[in-house]
Design goal:
313 residues; alpha/beta; 6-stranded parallel beta sheet; 3-stranded antiparallel beta sheet
């Protein structure tokens, strides 16, 4: 069965996503879409030049929304990272005005194409833009997912692993809430060596959970200040989520999806399959963690409602 993926937005992140998909042979057909046709065609030509040295062949199409009709997954990586230049508060919402208009335009075109696969949004602010895409694509909520805190959770695992000198894949647990400043590490979910991280922290003075929380939250900005964008970490998260969909793996992943309880998109673990969200995972959080999650959801919902009103008035 042919696997088909679309990537909208061929900036640093979209190109990294496309590169990962192509070089790993994860898709048979790849549709690349961007408003900058000169750069888009250059990237497509560069990918085609690599094809003879790759282990798998991928058919590449450019700027054809109709080609998305039978795609399994479409990934939105559009954005304008230059807006972050003077953003001293490191607030992803500085990109909202630009990306909300793009989400309406792209979402409408995707709806017109007849696409009925799973839409994966990376674009910032991730939760609000994902919610806008759901509205403008008209897809069921289970078929529209944001990468959300999948990247934040990976950063948490890396931070814990560095202190305990283990592979990040040996750390389990989640960052929850907004992919932004109100996200938090749910330490009650984190385990290493089959031990709760809270127990290990009591025994290990080098394992300061408050310090680690700050390190995780600042992870993306450390990268940004070094090269003025981030791409590999988020691209890996997007491709991980895409592969879970393509393979119908029913893998448990933290991602931004629609929570009926809160009336908004916000990140917590789900089972991911061919049609997106297969099942919600209910976590046994502490009282403080539940409060933080509710506050983060409220923050997202208020900003989504304002953005959606601006776009539809």
């Amino acid at each position: 069965m042919t696997r088909k993926v679309g990537v909208v937005g061929l900036g640093h992140v979209g190109t990294a996503v496309a590169n990962y998909l192509l070089f790993s042979g994860f898709t048979d057909e790849l549709v690349l879409i961007d408003t900058n046709e000169k750069k888009l065609n250059a990237e497509a030509t560069d990918f085609a030049d690599a094809m003879a040295n790759l282990n798998a062949h991928t058919k590449i199409m450019v700027n054809d929304y109709q080609a998305l009709k039978d795609a399994d997954v479409v990934v939105s990586a559009l954005g304008n990272i230059s807006l972050q230049k003077d953003n001293k508060k490191h607030d992803r919402f500085v990109e909202l005005a630009f990306n909300q208009k793009a989400a309406k335009e792209v979402g409408t075109k995707i709806k017109e194409s007849g696409f009925n696969g799973v839409f994966v949004s990376i674009s910032n602010p991730c939760d609000v833009i994902t919610a806008l895409y759901q509205k403008f694509t008209g897809l069921p909520t289970n078929q529209v997912i944001g990468t959300g805190t999948l990247l934040d959770s990976a950063r948490m695992k890396k931070a814990v692993a560095e202190v305990l000198q283990v592979d990040p894949r040996s750390v389990s647990g989640y960052n929850l809430g907004e992919h932004g400043n109100s996200q938090f590490t749910a330490w009650s979910t984190v385990r290493v060596f089959d031990q709760p991280i809270t127990k290990l922290a009591d025994e290990n003075p080098d394992l300061n959970l408050d310090d680690l929380s700050q390190k995780v939250r600042a992870g993306g900005y450390t990268v940004y200040h070094g090269k003025h964008y981030t791409n590999y970490g988020i691209a890996a998260a997007a491709v991980h989520l895409t592969n879970a969909i393509l393979s119908d793996s029913h893998e448990e992943l933290p991602a931004s999806y629609y929570h009926a309880e809160y009336g908004t998109y916000v990140s917590s673990p789900i089972i991911v399959g061919k049609k997106g969200v297969v099942k919600e995972i209910k976590l046994d959080l502490t009282t403080d963690e539940r409060k933080k999650f509710a506050e983060s959801a409220k923050y997202i919902k208020e900003r989504f409602e304002k953005a959606y009103t601006e776009l539809t008035d």
